[in-house]
């Protein structure tokens, strides 16, 4: 779980939250120590977040303008970032706002490129990391200690999700049929 928390900062789609949630669930069932799960998640995530910050602070432009950067269209993104900074100032000189829970890892490349204060990043990202991991581990523990309740919530969630997907599929199908008929009537 520790390595997964670090990796997620480098590869955001990495499913660390699922692993942390499951570890919290196991802690709720008494198979793992809850405080240890939370501490491992917080420390791993904070190390990953700060590693991304330091890498982009030190080598960001070089990395983003290299062959890798061409793959992710980094030159355009760097220009957008510089344009934003030119328009609104470099917020790192004054402050780093509190990040929404879980988003610390997604803004670290920009914070590094903007040369934010490392201490402020450590502090504010740390608050976000603690809040997010406490929420995820807490939900896992809650599910582990209240298994019947968790099953009911998941069943209800699945019903709602399937209804939303069904409505979206039907709505999209109706819209596509309507467009096809409108095109046929315009061409005839």
Could you characterize what this model shows?
- The chain has helices at 2-10, 16-28, 34-64, 67-71, 74-88, 104-113, 118-145, 147-187.
- 28% of the residues are buried.
- By secondary structure, the protein is mostly helical.
- The chain contains 8 helices and no strands.
SSE order and pairing:
Layout: H1 2-10, H2 16-28, H3 34-64, H4 67-71, H5 74-88, H6 104-113, H7 118-145, H8 147-187
Helix pairs in contact: 1-3, 2-3, 2-7, 3-6, 3-7, 6-7, 7-8
Number of strands: 0
Secondary structural class:
mainly alpha
- Put simply, the count of helices is 8
Compute the separation of the termini in Å.
62 Å
Shape designation: flat
Q: Tell me the Rg in angstroms.
A: 22 Å
In terms of DSSP E residues, the strand content is under 5%
Biggest sheet features: none
Low-confidence sequence ranges: 90-102
Average pLDDT number:
81
Secondary structure: helix percent: over 70%
H/E element sequence? HHHHHHHH
């Amino acid at each position: 779980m520790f390595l997964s928390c670090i990796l997620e900062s480098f590869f955001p789609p990495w499913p660390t939250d699922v692993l942390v949630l499951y570890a919290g669930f196991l802690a709720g069932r008494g198979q793992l120590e809850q405080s240890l799960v939370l501490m491992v998640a917080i420390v791993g995530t904070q190390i990953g977040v700060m590693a991304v910050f330091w890498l982009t602070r030190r080598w960001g432009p070089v990395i983003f303008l290299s062959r890798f950067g061409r793959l992710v269209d980094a030159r355009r993104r760097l220009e957008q970032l510089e344009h934003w900074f030119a328009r609104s100032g470099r917020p790192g000189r004054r402050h780093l706002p509190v990040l929404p829970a879980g988003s610390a890892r997604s803004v670290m490349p920009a914070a590094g490129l903007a040369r934010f204060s490392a201490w402020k990043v450590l502090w504010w990202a740390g608050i976000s990391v603690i809040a997010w991991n406490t929420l995820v581990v807490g939900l896992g523990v809650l599910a582990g200690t209240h298994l019947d309740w968790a099953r009911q919530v998941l069943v209800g969630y699945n019903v709602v999700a399937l209804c939303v997907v069904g409505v979206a599929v039907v709505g999209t199908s109706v819209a596509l049929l309507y467009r096809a008929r409108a095109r046929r009537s315009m061409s005839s």
